[in-house]
Amino acid sequence: MDFTTKHLKNLMEEVYLEPPFREHVAHALEHPLNWRMERIETRWFIEACQRVATVNPLLLELAKLDFNLVQSIHKRELGKLSRWWTDLGLAQWLPFFRDRLTENYFWTVGWAFEPQFWSFSEMQTKNMEADITFLMGEIKNQVVLSFIQLIKL
């Protein structure tokens, strides 16, 4: 990693790079590829390709259509999960529950964004929403109770 970073920084400083290539190198130096979410990286790459004159416009249009199609599928999935969460009604029964459904779904989609993994995304989001939200609420309650006991002493 250090070897690559060193040589990419050297390229940026000492060698003339054409603007599109320079943009890609600068973007690669910000964060390693394995730290990024693929869907966000895809959007950045589509926007970067729009600024390059040599890109095949038909392929670029196909990439945009695919991105938008997958995004509309994600919106539908999130709507289904939102209805499930509302119908479950835990937020009304347990007032300390936090509503983190969208965050949990976004995290799950970061792992597996392809539409064929919908059942995994659904199951993982539901598990995270129920487990993490409940645990965070319990931890918060325990901290508050401990603090109250300390004050009484």
Explained architecture:
The protein has 153 residues and is an all-alpha fold. It has one domain (36-152). The protein contains seven helices and no strands. It has helices spanning 2-14, 19-30, 38-50, 57-88, 90-93, 101-111, 118-152. Its cofactor is Mg(2+). One of its GO terms (molecular function) is terpene synthase activity.
Structural class: mainly alpha
The averaged pLDDT comes out at: 78
Number of helices: 7
Shape: flat
What is the count of distinct domains?
1
Radius of gyration: 22 Å
Measure the end-to-end span. 54 Å
SSE pattern? HHHHHHH
Helix content: over 70%
Strand percentage lies at under 5%
Task: Enumerate the spans where pLDDT stays under 50 for 5 or more consecutive residues.
Answer: none
DSSP strand count: 0
Biggest sheet features: none
Cofactor: Mg(2+)
Protein name: Myrcene synthase, chloroplastic
Pfam families: Terpene_synth_C
GO molecular function: magnesium ion binding; terpene synthase activity
Secondary structure topology:
Elements: H1 2-14, H2 19-30, H3 38-50, H4 57-88, H5 90-93, H6 101-111, H7 118-152
InterPro entries: Isoprenoid_synthase_dom_sf (IPR008949), Terpene_synth_N_sf (IPR036965), Terpene_synthase-like (IPR050148), Terpene_synthase_metal-bd (IPR005630), Terpenoid_cyclase/PrenylTrfase (IPR008930)
Protein name: Myrcene synthase, chloroplastic
GO molecular function: magnesium ion binding; terpene synthase activity
